Automatic annotation (TrEMBL):
Keywords: Membrane, Transmembrane, Transmembrane helix. Residues 375-389 have a biased composition (Gly residues). Residues 367-389 are annotated as: Disordered. This is DUF2157 domain-containing protein. The chain crosses the membrane at residues 48-74, 80-100, 112-128, 134-150, 155-174, 180-198, 210-233, 253-274, 281-300, 306-325.
Length: 389
């Protein structure tokens, strides 16, 4: 299914890990440059600004091709203009395939054609359904984006797939199930938790690292979805918007006590679990969830003036940070305040492969000059004496 050459793809992973090791100071720049020369890899860019520039260039190229095709075919398809988005999507597939055959991976040009393909097919289905059906569009977008991820390993495509597939399930529950609005939050909680543990199992059993980043992204988004599905503010306002008929204050929801408890308990569990298992992504999500929890409470219950609440919150956060910094600044292992030499926590997973590739890719060392003093000889286990000088 993957279009790229497996050897070049593995070399790209190794070079990426070697970059992280060089940034951390474990290997020198000469070793890194030598590895890049010895290992043929895919054509990609890690600099986000360069990648955005090539993405804009690819967007201009893609739109120019579509415009040229439109001008050539508009006279013959004047009454069937709805077919043009499908043609544009096919052009995107051809362009993505051509760039992949030329080893463009996470380059910027390929991003434009891959995302353009997903957008064109989504717009095509929307036009065919007269802008009235959400479900067919979500299904097609999820299918196309999943294919783009599996074939081209495009990270944004897996995010689009997850959002489109989640939209498909939510819309199906609301439209085709009785009491769908009541069960939707609980279904999304189970769905988010299930996807999280499924991705965790897949990552643990993953033998090839090609799909690691995609699985990690879905796993992280599932944590966010799980919390938002039970957040009181989100559930209440979404229920009110689906019901309609209110102007200023949304009506109270059933099981309000459960959702209030969920709003404040889950972020604490995120923090405890992330500190215990040293999960940095979950730690940041936990901090954001705590901030949203307090915002949710203040949205309905303004206990203190905003300036007093912000001041007290800042003091509490400063005191908490000062306390933990004092506890962790002398620790050398485990949870510590010491700077992380390796920014990518996945670096050491392939460190052995990097070392092996570097070792076997080295050229033979130059033979040192022979010493003028000759050794050897001897018939008594290398004693060095044969009865002559």
């Amino acid at each position: 299914m993957i279009v790229f050459d497996k050897n070049k793809l593995e070399n790209s992973v190794l070079i990426e890990e070697a970059d992280a090791l060089q940034s951390a100071g474990f290997i020198g720049k000469e070793q890194l440059d030598f590895m890049k020369k010895q290992l043929p890899a895919l054509n990609s860019h890690k600099n986000i600004l360069i990648r955005i520039g090539f993405f804009l260039l690819g967007t201009f190229l893609y739109s120019s091709i579509c415009s040229a095709v439109s001008l050539l075919a508009i006279s013959g398809l004047d009454h069937y203009w709805e077919i043009f988005p499908f043609i544009f999507g096919i052009i995107g597939i051809i362009g993505s395939e051509f760039l992949a055959q030329k080893d463009y991976f996470s380059h910027g040009l390929d991003d434009a054609f891959i995302l353009g393909t997903i957008l064109c097919f989504g717009c095509a289905i929307t036009i065919v359904t007269d802008f009235n059906e959400v479900l067919p569009t979500a299904i097609i977008v999820s299918m196309v984006s999943l294919i783009m991820f599996l074939r081209y390993l495009h990270l944004l495509s897996v995010l689009i797939f997850y959002l489109a597939f989640t939209t498909t399930l939510g819309y199906f529950i609301l439209e085709y199930m009785e009491a769908g609005q009541s069960i939707l939050p609980f279904f999304m909680m189970l769905y988010g938790a299930g996807i999280y543990f499924l991705c965790k199992k897949i990552i643990n059993d993953l033998t090839d690292s090609y799909y690691y980043n995609g699985m990690l992204l879905i796993k992280s988004i599932s944590l966010i979805l799980f919390y938002l599905s039970g957040n009181y503010l989100v559930v209440r306002e979404l229920s009110a918007s689906l019901t309609g008929g209110y102007y200023e204050i949304s009506p109270e929801i059933p099981f309000a006590f459960f959702f209030w408890g969920f709003t404040f308990v889950v972020p604490v569990l995120y923090l405890v679990y992330s500190l215990k298992n040293r999960d940095r992504i979950m730690l940041w999500i936990g901090f954001l969830a705590i901030a949203l929890s307090f915002y949710s409470f203040r949205f309905y219950h303004s206990v203190l003036p905003i300036e007093v609440a912000l001041t007290l919150g800042g003091l509490i956060m400063f005191a908490t940070a000062f306390f933990f910094v004092g506890k962790l600044k002398t620790k050398e292992s485990g949870l510590t305040f010491k700077p992380d030499r390796v920014s990518n926590s996945n670096t050491f997973l392939n460190a052995e492969a990097v070392i092996i590739a570097s070792t076997f890719g080295m050229k033979p060392e130059a033979k040192p000059a022979e010493s003028p003093m000759e050794f050897g000889g001897g018939g008594f286990s290398g004693g060095g004496s044969e009865g002559s000088f």
